[in-house]
Design brief:
This protein is mainly α and about 1250 residues long. The chain is built from 57 helices and 4 strands. Helix 28 (about 465-475) packs across helix 29, helix 40 (about 680-695) runs parallel beside helix 42 (about 720-740) and helix 41 (about 705-715) packs antiparallel against helix 42 (about 720-740).
């Protein structure tokens, strides 16, 4: 067979050469080779298994049709059909242009097109089958590797069939039109282009066929005539774009559809006509007056469904054309846009803005003042996306019609108000995105990048290091993908043109004025302009870059003018009151603006006149004004000492006075100002430090706050000089005298939070004392004296004692909340310094984490904001992101949603940082978001609420916390991250808990959390079973190294529990009646889960693991009002009579802080603790029933959600298996006694010991916060 095939191939080649050399005039040769021609059409060749033989036979047959034209040597219609279907199949070989046989396939196509061989088929009854197969083959093989000749021959072949045939059948028309459908168009752009040219070439013949098709579908409603019936509107739009002549007969059919009784059908036609009217150079509206009229009537009669306006349905760019063709009256358009500009949906409001601006940019006369007013209103929209679109749109109109004067004076006057409006909008403190500030910050950053680029060009050889700077520039340009090439080209131009570099250096110079900047920009643009190229994208990008770095707003002259205006307000000669602003408000606002400018334009302030005005502000009684003035000096006064000695001599005593007796904010800025602008700062700071450190007096806390702020910042800014003196201040005063003593008694009002003005001076002083400790340590940045260990133990003790470090019960609950927040924030601040992060124990980390579950709403809110702010700047280690998993327990929907947004932002920033910094791959353990999983698992394993590894309710809570984090991490499966996270959880089960490696229960809890995590991952991702891209590295601080012979294949949750976790209804979860709730363990306020109808589900807002019923329950019960920020101090008080247990005196026992903190936290963390009084027994409170005093007010009809906050006495014990057990925490970690507090570094503290003895006491009353 092989020999036969080889022989056949050789014979075929000979035959091909023979037929190629023959022409139509050689009659003798025709007769001679007629038997061979008939033989080649035999079944042996047409169905030959060898593709090369088939190709050669097809070439021969094509030549035979050429030679014997116009008559074919084959008389049988069936044979002719077989031959042309055979040739059509061979044309599929055209697809591969790199094939060695491609030239023969091309010869076959060329021969068929030149001779128009397929026209022979017109004589056949079923020729349509052949043509359809041919058209489908040619459209399927065309691709971008084909040259123009291939496309030309395909067009010749197909157009000859259409033009010379009796008509085009629907099936053949479908084979052409299907390539115009968007889905097919996107798959094969070359097929779309081929169909487009074919339709243009055959428009005279095919137009009638197209009209018949649309008539069948649109008028007669026969959708079965074609599979493309459902795409008629897409086809009409594409055909109109190809050649409007193709639709001459279709327009009356669309007019008929506009009168349809089906509203959806009419709406679809309106959308289509809007697109046709809006096509480039379209004159459809003017040529079809009847359609115009019907279109207008139809549009006016619409009652658009789902509150969606025609703004959305007609699309932005097409609606603006409706203004131009005057299809719709201005009144109708205005009324629609007026309603939709206030639509609840952000996307619709956004589209209204885009529509109006697009129309205005085409022709300002199309947009009346009322429409522009809608855009002006949206500049104050609550959504940033809408505000941005409105402001950018107005700016574009102003630039086009005022700056460029493209439409004359009338148009410029019409939009002249935009400049003032935008400047007022840009600087409004009420808007959360102070756009002017961000604009100047962006400009300052971009100027620094360009300056670095110019510095690199001054070097003998410009290295590749400039690439990073280029990419920094790209991030600030529109469309970074395209801008990358432009910036590289600009860099090359800078390297070749020294004059261009000098112009650019002048432009970014700090002394460049606005007038000089304008000259520089024009000069640079002139150098780069190309007269032969009217549209120069490169020049446009360079202009955009220059506009962003040029000082077009602010220079020394502008600052001087602003200062003069402020001086008029100070002197009382300004017209502030006439403008409805008091002079004091004007001065404060002016200084705030100058303060912002001082960050971005510091050199523009350097003048004696400006600084004299600022000195005058420093002497004013308004604290805010003085504070802003000091900060401006700090930002701009680097040359005061050398250039303006008179200003220096006046400024120094004022700064000293503010640092000693000003407000805390003034003191901070004064210290930083001295450190920033004076060369002899050590002397200046010593003159402040020494008198303040000697005059500290804890008996007068009102006078302590400012000195503590100043001392803290001094020790942080100059640690070499003041770290040692501060050590004695810390030991003898801060700890012993201030923190370890309660000199005043707080107000027992039951509130968990009080406004700043109601906080006692003593507590404010203690908060500042905690901050001083942190600043002192941050200045030293080392732990050689073990001061950090002692400070961390002190902070942990404050969290353990719930803010009442002395446990004398003299401090109010709102003050305790302040101190808990200060302690948690302090630990988090120290963790930002690597040397201190290393010594923070897992127990201390867990105490810090539990602050996010505090009973006080404001504590949770502020702590979460601080946590997010530090994480988003990559200041905190990755393990602190695991704290957000605990937010799943927050009863307030707003707080859970905020936590989820924080997670999304943090994960996005970390992933982006890894992509942009190749060196980051070496630090993946601290940057890769997926590595938060081990920290989260360890943290949840030590959750005080997690006491029984087999308790389904507790496991449900774990699942919610895990899913709260995993849901965000598993949004994308980047680099097979799902398998990587699963591998981490599996690897943890092969280790032990480093915190307590020898405790079976602790390890069992750890493995149980791992199993719950694996359960969640497996249920939510089918990709997690793939191989992990790399072997995870587990943090040794939390997990031991895997043992060689250790194998842990046990399932710690049963199959029944697994099913229950994934499919069962969420357990009813109690939430805070007033946003607040008590702790379950020392240092943490848990959210008590109670049963019965009074409780609701408290799970993650975004969790998809729960059933719909569970989600409904959650929404009904746990969605606390968004105004709940102030709920802590608005709760009514209910008096309930309870009978507390008997008490006995407390015995103090000295304990080492390490043992106290670590041991107490890790021992039976989950046991509920509801009493905090020194020496009192832990009393378990029953969650389902409370006995009220008969004299108390009746319970409110609305069910109270969650357990109330603790008070001095607790009542109604719980009858469960832990009732008679002693407090598992052993000793309460608390205050350092006065005898030993003087030596903070010694690391010893004294705490009252909990006595496990029954106690008796007289009945007492307790206050419980209830929900209104």
């Amino acid at each position: 067979q092989v020999a036969c095939l080889q022989c056949g191939r050789k014979r075929g080649v000979t035959d091909v050469k023979t037929f190629m050399d023959m022409d139509q005039d050689s009659e003798d040769e025709k007769q001679q080779y007629l038997p061979l021609a008939l033989h080649l059409a035999s079944e042996f060749f047409l169905r030959n298994p060898n593709k090369d033989v088939r190709l050669l036979v097809a070439c021969c047959l094509a030549d035979i049709f050429r030679i014997y034209a116009p008559e074919a040597p084959y008389t049988s219609h069936d044979k002719l059909k077989d031959i042309f279907l055979f040739i059509t199949r061979q044309l599929k070989g055209l697809e591969d242009t790199k094939s060695p046989q491609f030239n023969r396939y091309f010869y076959l196509l060329e021969n068929l097109a030149w001779v128009k061989s397929y026209n022979i088929c017109f004589e056949l009854e079923d020729c349509n089958e052949i043509f359809i197969q041919l058209f489908r083959t040619l459209f399927s093989v065309i691709n971008n590797s084909h040259n123009q000749k291939v496309q030309m021959h395909m067009l010749d072949l197909m157009s000859s069939i259409i033009m010379e045939g009796d008509g085009v059948t629907q099936e053949l028309l479908d084979s052409i039109l299907i390539n115009l459908i968007p889905a097919h168009k996107n798959l094969n752009k070359q097929a779309f282009d081929l169909a487009k040219v074919l339709l243009k070439r055959t428009v005279q013949i095919i137009e009638a066929c197209i009209a018949n098709f649309f008539n069948q579908v649109l008028v007669l409603g026969k959708s079965s005539v074609s599979d493309l019936s459902e795409h008629v509107f897409d086809l009409i739009q594409e055909l109109f774009a190809i050649d409007p002549q193709l639709l001459l007969s279709v327009m009356p059919q669309l007019e008929f559809k506009l009168k349809s009784n089906d509203g959806e059908e009419r709406l679809a036609v309106v959308r289509l006509l809007a697109k046709l009217f809006g096509s480039k150079d379209s004159d459809l509206a003017t040529q079809n007056q009847n359609i115009q009229t019907d279109f207008r009537i139809c549009l006016c009669s619409f009652n658009f469904p789902n509150k969606l306006s025609f703004v959305v349905h007609l699309q932005q760019k097409h609606l603006s054309i409706l203004f131009m063709v005057t299809v719709v009256d201005f009144f109708i358009v205005t009324e629609y846009l007026k309603v939709r500009s206030h639509d609840p949906e952000e996307a619709i409001r956004h589209d209204v803005i885009v529509t109006i601006i697009t129309a205005g940019k085409r022709d300002l006369s199309l947009v009346n003042d009322q429409l522009l007013g809608f855009v002006r209103e949206r500049t104050l929209d609550k959504r940033w996306r809408v505000r941005k679109e409105a402001m950018m749109g107005l700016a574009q109109l102003y630039k086009k019609y005022c700056l460029h004067a493209e439409a004359g004076k009338d148009a410029a006057e019409k939009v002249s108000w935009i400049k003032d409006k935008l400047l007022h909008i840009y600087y409004q403190n009420s808007i959360d995105d102070k756009a002017l500030n961000e604009m100047w910050k962006c400009q300052n950053m971009l100027r620094s990048h360009v300056r670095e680029l110019l510095d690199l060009h001054k070097q003998p050889t410009v290295r590749l290091s400039y690439v990073s700077i280029l990419f920094n520039n790209i991030e600030n340009l529109p469309d970074p993908g395209k801008a990358q090439d432009f910036v590289k080209k600009f860099n090359q131009v800078l390297g070749d043109d020294e004059k261009l570099r000098s112009q650019l250096e002048l432009l970014i110079s700090p002394t460049c004025s606005c007038k000089q900047a304008d000259v520089c920009v024009r000069e640079i643009a002139r150098k780069l302009a190309n007269p032969k190229q009217p549209t120069n994208p490169f020049l446009e990008m360079v202009k955009f870059l220059l506009e962003r770095i040029a000082p077009v707003h602010i220079d020394s002259e502008a600052i001087s003018a602003l200062v003069k205006l402020m001086n008029k307000s100070i002197e009382g000669t300004a017209d502030d009151e006439e403008e409805g602003v008091s002079p004091d408000t004007a001065i404060r606002a002016g200084l705030e603006l100058l303060k912002v400018l001082s960050f971005t334009h510091p050199t523009s302030f350097h003048s004696a006149e400006t600084y004299e005005s600022l000195l005058q502000c420093l002497r004013m009684e308004d604290d805010k004004v003085a504070e802003a003035a000091i900060q401006i000096f700090r930002n701009t006064g680097h040359k005061i000492e050398t250039d303006l000695p008179q200003i220096r001599s006046t400024l120094i005593p004022i700064l000293h006075q503010k640092a000693k007796r000003g407000t805390p904010h003034q003191a901070k800025q004064a210290v930083h100002c001295i450190h920033a602008i004076f060369s002899n700062k050590e002397v200046q700071l010593a003159q402040i430090f020494e008198p303040l450190s000697r005059s500290l007096n804890a008996d007068v806390p009102e006078q302590l706050i400012t000195p503590l702020v100043s001392l803290g910042h001094i020790s942080m800014l100059a640690p070499d000089q003041f770290a040692s003196p501060m050590k004695s201040v810390v030991a003898n005063f801060i700890v012993k005298d201030l923190l370890m003593n309660d000199r005043s008694t707080g107000e027992k009002n039951g509130k968990l939070w009080s406004p700043d003005e109601e906080v006692s001076p003593e507590v404010l002083a203690k908060v500042q004392a905690i901050k001083l400790l942190v600043r002192w340590l941050l200045g030293m940045k080392n732990n050689q004296s073990k001061s950090a260990n002692s400070t961390l133990r002190l902070l942990s003790a404050m969290l353990v004692s719930e803010g009442d470090l002395t446990e004398q019960k003299r401090i109010s609950k709102s003050d305790m909340s302040r101190l808990r927040l200060a302690a948690g924030s302090a630990i988090m601040k120290l963790a930002q310094e690597p040397c201190y992060h290393e010594i923070i124990t897992p127990e201390q980390f867990q105490l810090c984490a539990l602050v996010i579950n505090d009973e006080c709403y404001q504590v949770r809110q502020i702590f979460a904001q601080k946590l997010h702010k530090a994480l988003v700047k990559l200041l905190l280690p990755l393990e602190y992101m695991a704290i957000f998993a605990l937010c799943a327990k927050d009863p307030v929907k707003e707080r859970r949603a905020h936590a989820r947004q924080c997670l999304l932002k943090n994960i996005s920033i970390r992933r982006e940082y890894i992509k942009q910094n190749p060196m980051a791959n070496e630090k993946l353990l601290s940057l890769l978001p997926e590595y938060v999983v081990p920290y989260m698992i360890h943290l949840l394993a030590h959750d005080p609420d997690f006491t029984k590894p087999q308790d389904v309710d507790q496991l449900r809570d774990l699942k919610e916390c895990l899913w709260f984090m995993l849901e965000v991490l598993m949004t994308k499966n980047e680099n097979n991250s799902h398998a990587f996270m699963k591998k981490m959880a599996e690897n943890i089960k092969l280790t032990r808990d480093a915190q307590s490696p020898d405790e079976p229960k602790a390890n069992e809890k750890l493995y149980t959390v791992c199993d719950v995590a694996l359960c969640v991952i497996n249920s939510k991702s089918a990709l997690c079973n793939a191989d992990s891209p790399k072997d995870p590295v587990l943090p040794t601080k939390f997990f031991t190294q895997p043992e060689k012979d250790f194998c842990n294949d046990r399932n710690y949750i049963t199959e029944e529990t697994r099913v229950l976790l994934l499919t069962g209804k969420p357990k009813p979860t109690g939430v805070l009646g007033a946003v607040n709730k008590p702790l379950s363990a020392t240092g943490r306020r848990p959210y008590i889960r109670s049963t019965g109808s009074e409780t609701g589900s408290n799970i993650s807002v975004n969790s998809e693991l729960s059933s719909p019923a569970g989600n409904r329950s959650r929404e009904q019960s746990s969605d606390i009002s968004e105004t709940g920020v102030s709920e802590n101090d608005e709760n009514p008080v209910r008096i309930i009579s309870v009978t507390p247990a008997k008490t006995e005196p407390v015995k103090n026992k000295e304990i080492h802080s390490d043992q106290a903190t670590q041991g107490n936290i890790s021992t039976e963390r989950g046991k509920k603790r509801t009493a905090v009084a020194a020496g009192s027994e832990n009393i378990h409170q029953k969650t389902e029933e409370k006995k009220a005093d008969e004299s108390g007010p009746p319970a409110p009809p609305k069910p109270r959600r969650g357990r109330p906050p603790k008070s001095e006495s607790q009542g109604t014990t719980v009858k469960n298996d832990e009732t008679n057990k002693p407090s598992g925490r052993g000793r309460k970690r608390a205050a350092v006694s006065q005898e030993s507090s003087g030596s903070l570094e010694a690391g010893n503290a004294k705490a009252p010991k909990q006595q496990d003895i029954a106690k008796k006491a007289a009945p007492a009353q307790r206050q419980i916060d209830l929900q209104r």
